[in-house]
Amino acid sequence: MITIDGKQIKLQIWDTAGQESFRSITRSYYRGAAGALLVYDITRRDTFNHLTTWLEDARQHSNSNMVIMLIGNKSDLEARRDVKKEEGEAFAREHGLIFMETSAKTAANVEEAFINTAKEIYEKIQEGVFDINNEANGIKLGPQHSPTNPTLPSSGGGQQSGGGCC
């Protein structure tokens, strides 16, 4: 559970581990997902080189509005870096992705990666990009939103206390 714009948001997260042997199973996770974190290891060039294939898979099997964040992991291993931060930024820019570097070991930017992805999804909901009545988009309204009034409060609102959107 995280809070965005004063609203409780529940994230459901699957880790597909990026294993080539699980690729066919991984494709099923894209269906019904509102967001994805595409992660590579900054100390292993081959993981960066495979990004295009993983991104194509994600885009082919998901909603066209899915939010995708590119993550360069292991930022704590600067001395062993094999992929420059600028390369990750350029790849993200070229493909319309959000970018950041993290360290799972030190927890640097890990929570921020999930929160920033959720914020982007939330903004798309607010802009009407995601149809909140279609669960195929990977978004479910919380119990406080009745089917007769499924719209989310505007970000400037605050009319609803303790509410969540998803």
Question: In words, what does this structure look like?
Answer:
- By secondary structure, the chain is α/β, with parallel strands linked by helices.
- It has one domain (2-136): Rossmann fold.
- It contains 5 helices and 5 strands.
- The strands form 2 sheets. Strands 3-4-5 form a 3-stranded parallel sheet.
- A hairpin with a 2-residue loop joins strand 1 (2-4) and strand 2.
- The chain starts with a strand and ends in a 40-residue tail after the last helix.
- The model is unreliable at 146-164 (pLDDT under 50).
- Pfam families: Ras (PF00071).
- Residues 138-166 are annotated as: Disordered.
- This is Ras-related protein Rab-2A-like.
Share in helix: 25-40%
Q: DSSP strand (E) fraction? A: 5-15%
CATH topology: Rossmann fold
Total number of helical segments? Answer: 5
Biased composition (Gly residues): 155-166
Protein name: Ras-related protein Rab-2A-like
Region (Disordered): 138-166
InterPro entries: P-loop_NTPase (IPR027417), Rab_GTPases_membrane_traffic (IPR050209), Small_GTP-bd (IPR005225), Small_GTPase (IPR001806)
Write the layout of secondary structure elements.
Layout: E1 2-4, E2 7-9, H1 23-30, E3 35-41, H2 45-49, H3 51-60, E4 67-73, H4 85-95, E5 98-101, H5 110-126
Parallel strand pairs: 3-4, 4-5
Antiparallel strand pairs: 1-2
